Amino acid sequence: MAANSTSAFVGNPPNTERDYYIVRGMDRTYGASSADPADGFTYLAAAPSDYVHETKSVQVIIGLVIMMVTILIPTVARLVLRASNPAMEFGSDDWAIILAASVALLYSIVHILIIVQGGGGYHIWEVTYEQYNSFVYWANVATMLYYVAVSLIKVSITLFLRRIAHQAFLPWRIACDIFLASLALYVVYVMLSTSIYCKPVQAGWSLELSGQLEQPAKCIDEYRNAEALSIVHLIQGTILLCSPLIMLWKVRMSRSKKIRLYSFWIVGGLAVLGALLDFLLQNVSSDYTWSYTSIITWAAIDICFGMLTASLPVLDAFIEDVWRSTRRKISTGRHSRGDVHGDSQSNPPVAGPWTDKHAPISQENVVATCAHRSESQEHFVQAEDTIEMGNMSAQDNEVRSSMVYTTESSGKTPSR
């Protein structure tokens, strides 16, 4: 076998020395150490007699670009809102989401490398041994990045919930701390189990190096390990999804705001669904380079909806402001059309900045003005058997007008 020949396609006898060792490494991976590498690796899918060339590489790359845009838009909007609104504090949950977005973007880039260098999106019989060796390497990297990314998203959401419950609801804070500790242990295990699962370590990252060893490497069962990682990820995601639903049940706020927040967590439910389908579709067929694209789809849904779930509650005040502004413009347009027809004569004068400065100011107006001052304060205030959320719009704050009016008149700032 010449060292400078073209690599053979998977399923055929090797053309090069590299092919020979890659096939030997593949045989050892499947527990067929006694097989002769010169015969090629024949345990994977073979081309049917009526096969016509097809590929999904372009569609996958387009999908990955859409994934990156979906990750960037809510993250950048969240950070811009934090930076532009002095009433909002840049906290640890924001740092966590920045790190999560960075890892998720890197995950997308790695999958593009799988397409370009590893033959992803092609049938396995159209992939060379050298391409498949690259496929295995980048697939290991992508697996690690995926579990780290979804864990960091959970960390950001948990830190956000902990910040809300700060100095108000001790059991929730303790629960958040315990959950954060479990996430930290999970990330450590992910890093170790996906990087040093073979002895020697390099055998787990390169089929060629694995085939060059005199004796087969000793490795943990990577499929069992992937199942364990997926199950823990599903359990953690379900717990995190249910926790805010229970918390919001005891929060006193307007019905519209509660519906919005519940809808945000429904988005999180889609992320959990993506993780579940990703787990169920791990072993689709022996045509790995072709069938793995369906796993990318559900993993992308998991990451994208997880990023949205982490950022939408922070963007809630902005979303509500936009909605109120739109309704106000529509209402103003209707009134303007009514003025043209003479309907404005029946309307009483409305107090505003252009009216008599000695006009009486009602307590409700003071409350609305004070409430508008800080739309992004995140805290809970315990009141009898309920917990009141401070991250409210002016509409929600008017419900507790007496408390706000008393606080403002006494010169004290509500606790965070």
From TrEMBL:
Keywords: Membrane, Transmembrane, Transmembrane helix
Region (Disordered): 333-357, 387-416
Protein name: Rhodopsin domain-containing protein
Spans through the membrane: 58-81, 93-115, 135-160, 172-192, 231-249, 261-283, 295-319
InterPro entries assigned to the protein according to its UniProt record, in alphabetical order: Rhodopsin_dom_fungi, SAT4-like
Pfam families linked to this entry: Fung_rhodopsin (PF20684)
Compartmental location: Membrane
Domain (Rhodopsin) ranges: 77-319
Compositional bias (Polar residues): 403-416
GO cellular component: membrane
